[in-house]
Write a structure and sequence with these properties.
Radius of gyration: 19 Å
Number of domains: 1
Order of helices and strands: HHHHHHHHHHH
Helix content: over 70%
Number of strands: 0
Low-confidence stretches: 21-32
Shape: globular
């Protein structure tokens, strides 16, 4: 084993141990359960007093890094606590910070780390994004509801996108979903249940359509992206 490989293995092992300890502590003190219970989350944010906004932003960032935690809960919570506008602002800050952190983890620790965090099927599916930039395509993927944006953040750490490019994409690309969730939370805040159910129904319908045709959508985007790359390459 070479010295570089030895160092990489040692660094990865140390990181894996730290993550394992961190997750264990989260379960022990009930943080994971907190994320999964909207009422407990709401009480927790209120208990922070003037630091509630910071706490909410941290929660939003954390749910991106810990991808299995549902972001819909925290998205609705933002609208419920702060209204539509500020819910969007605070959620966007948190989601962008979390996405950037996941991106940097992928970039710093490389493919061995990403393979441990991301489902192999997702990694293989979006492998074509790693060979050339395709910033517009990545932005489009972030816009589409139902796509695994949290996992994509890790994967894109291996791509040729710059940190600035990814930050802009992550911040703006999530706005549609963030707006809908914040709006839904605001409806709940004002007991406008009919509007909330209408919005939720529309969101579920769109997500279902995307889910039914996601393989075709992904195949079309892949073909378009690769053909566009080849055309640009031939022009040079």
């Amino acid at each position: 084993m070479t010295k570089n490989k030895g160092r990489a293995l040692l660094r990865f092992t140390a990181l894996a141990v730290l993550i394992a300890l961190f997750v264990f502590l989260l379960y022990e003190v009930g943080v994971i359960e907190l994320f999964l219970n909207e009422e407990k989350l709401r009480k927790f944010i209120h208990s922070l007093g003037p630091f509630g906004v910071i706490g909410f932003i941290v929660l939003q960032a954390f749910q991106v890094v810990a991808a299995p935690i549902p972001g819909e809960v925290t998205g609705l919570l933002g609208g419920y606590l702060y209204g539509t506008f500020w819910g969007i602002v605070f959620s966007t800050i948190g989601l962008t910070l979390g996405s950037v952190f996941a991106f940097l983890l992928g970039r710093v620790f490389g493919k061995p780390f990403v393979e441990k965090v991301v489902d192999p099927m997702i990694l293989n599916k979006f492998d074509y994004l790693l060979h050339h930039k395709g910033a517009f395509l990545v932005f489009f993927l972030f816009l589409i509801p139902g796509f695994p944006k949290d996992y994509l953040s890790y994967v894109l750490g291996l791509s040729r996108l710059s940190l600035l490019e990814f930050t802009v994409i992550a911040g703006v690309g999530r706005l549609l979903g963030t707006t809908l969730l914040s709006l839904g939370g605001d409806y709940l805040r004002h007991h406008q249940y009919e509007k909330f159910l209408t919005l939720a129904g529309a969101g579920i319908a769109v997500t279902l359509i995307v889910w039914l045709f996601k393989d075709k959508i992904e195949r079309i985007l892949r073909i378009w992206h690769i053909s566009r790359y080849k055309r640009n390459k031939n022009k040079k």
